[in-house]
Design brief:
Length: 519
């Protein structure tokens, strides 16, 4: 059988219900909806970690973040980790990535460093670390934004995590660097750089994270990703290909260009049903979780979640929709370019996102903190010309993506890859484990991790160092407004979920290291 090609289209920080095919009646996404109509739409697909870098690592490796080591933003994916792109490349595939990778750190900000524990003298370096090999140095600095600002022609060794062809976008909104920087510079031909708030057109709306960009539509990062994807598809090679077109939008800041900025009227945007039950008013959460939202309130133009009023929330959602529709327009162009190659009949097209966004749930915007459904449930559309279209109710996780793709290519999964093929006839409906290292600076001791289990219509979340937690019946309470953690009538369900959380954590232990000798 002819090996299939793979076109993976990915967005950044897009929740599942911000697509027409997932029930949204306002945002216009006809091309993505068309993919869903021709393919399999997974209605219960979840992140393995609700933050960019760790979940992208889980998607790439098929491993939970406690195993691949990328447990939070700021820890790169190891260069010795095997990705699905590595496997396909070694199997004869032509591999390309255009847009956001986020396999490595994008900021050089020094992280909070823990101290050696106990009494006495500190062990001499490098023995002050229990794992001496750390992911640092020039080999792990290829996605640092300031390096591209200083050198727009920065060279990245190939293959890069399995990708021979690479066109990077680093950043979000209209504040993007990477290979995009040199592309933009060449097209500006000496004109002033139009990126960022300082260069905006001067009619900012009265809300955080919003400005009317001076970058025109034809020079915006979404256009760059789309054009580079189309160029990759035009290669006449007969080799099977893997192309990942990874858009930095609709991630904040909310700066869709040109007509997309005014495409949706904020007055037409309904607020989530939980909007008037803000997280800040809750008394059933540990202090370090509440602190995350306080930090966001102090810095609403940064990266932490913050509470917002109704008018500003509608504005942000409307602009988020504009960015999504621009991506959808480019999805249409990419699919048209695929058709022109004559290879569409043998190409599996996937649409997905790395994680979601609160987008007004419980009065909150962005991410971090609690694992509400808008943050952890993401789209997965799998359009395979060889398969019958339909909707899958099978519960899946980010760790299942790589095994599903490799099995579709007719390739066995590497030893230690933890997910399973979601399209297999005997695929089990497994509980989903979601790991989160938290924000270490939200507590004095840095103990802010949490674990979530989604299973049989329920969500359970437990917090490090706390007797408090969350338990929701997602069928009876889809907007997660009634926490049953302390409800005596829900105690049997809580015990059941805690047991399955422990069992799932055991099942997802690391099996990648092999025995060298047997007795």
């Amino acid at each position: 059988m002819t090996r299939p090609n793979f076109l993976v289209i990915m967005t950044d920080q897009q929740r599942a219900d911000h697509l027409g095919c997932y029930g949204n009646g306002i945002v216009r996404t006809p091309h993505i909806d068309g993919l869903a109509a021709r393919g399999t739409r997974f209605d219960r697909f979840y992140v393995a970690n609700p933050i960019c870098q760790p979940n992208r690592a889980a998607l790439a490796t098929g491993q939970v973040t406690s195993v691949n080591g990328c447990r939070q933003n700021g820890i790169p994916l190891g260069l010795d980790c095997t990705t699905y792109a590595d496997v396909l490349r070694a199997s004869g595939y032509r591999t390309g990535l255009t847009g956001k990778a986020h396999f490595q750190n994008v900021s050089p900000v020094p992280a909070r460093q823990p101290e050696a524990t106990g009494q006495g003298a500190k062990p001499p370096a490098p023995f002050d670390l229990s794992r001496r090999s750390q992911r640092r140095g020039p080999d792990y600095a290829h996605e640092i934004r300031k390096n591209w600002i200083e050198d727009p022609d920065h060279a990245v060794p190939r293959p890069y995590y399995g990708f021979d062809h690479l066109r990077l976008c680093i950043g979000h909104g209209d504040q993007v660097e990477g290979h995009y920087s040199a592309w933009l510079r060449d097209r500006l031909d000496g004109a002033p750089d139009p990126r960022g708030r300082a260069a905006s057109l001067g009619n900012d709306l009265d809300a955080p994270q919003i400005w009317r960009t001076a970058v025109p539509e034809d020079l915006y990062p979404t256009t760059y990703v789309g054009q580079e994807a189309c160029a990759f598809l035009q290669d006449p090679s007969d080799d099977p290909f893997l192309l990942v077109a990874s858009f930095p939008d609709p991630h904040h800041p909310f700066t869709p260009p040109g007509r997309y900025f005014d495409m949706y009227d904020p007055a037409d945007i309904p607020l989530p049903e939980s909007f008037d039950q803000p997280t800040s008013a809750r008394k059933d959460l540990p202090r370090h979780i509440q602190r995350v939202y306080e930090i966001g309130g102090e810095k609403p133009d940064a990266y932490w979640p913050f509470h917002s009023d109704a008018e500003a929330t509608r504005q942000m959602i409307a602009l988020n929709y504009g960015a999504i529709t621009m991506v959808d327009d480019w999805v249409g162009r990419i699919l048209a370019a695929l058709e022109e190659t004559g290879k569409a009949g043998n190409t599996i097209v996937v649409f997905m996102s790395d994680h979601g966004d609160y987008m007004g749930d419980h009065g909150t915007i962005l991410k971090h903190g609690l694992h509400t459904h808008g943050l952890i449930r993401v789209p997965l559309i799998w359009s395979d010309p060889r398969r019958t279209a339909g909707v899958s109710g099978l519960q899946g996780s980010a760790i299942d993506f790589a095994p599903t793709l490799l099995q579709a290519a007719g390739i066995k999964c590497p030893i230690g890859m933890q997910g399973r093929d979601l399209l297999a006839e005997d695929a089990a409906d497994l509980p989903v484990l979601i790991e989160d290292a938290g924000l270490a600076f939200a507590s004095d001791d840095g103990c802010t991790a949490s674990r979530t289990l989604v299973h049989e219509r329920w969500r359970l979340s437990v917090f490090e160092g706390s007797d408090l937690g969350e338990l929701y019946d997602l069928e009876a309470d889809p907007h997660e407004v009634t926490n049953l953690w302390a409800d005596p009538t829900a105690a049997p369900r809580k015990a059941y979920m805690m047991q399955h959380l422990a069992l799932r954590m055991i099942a997802l232990r690391d099996t990648s290291l092999l025995s060298t000798h047997q007795a």
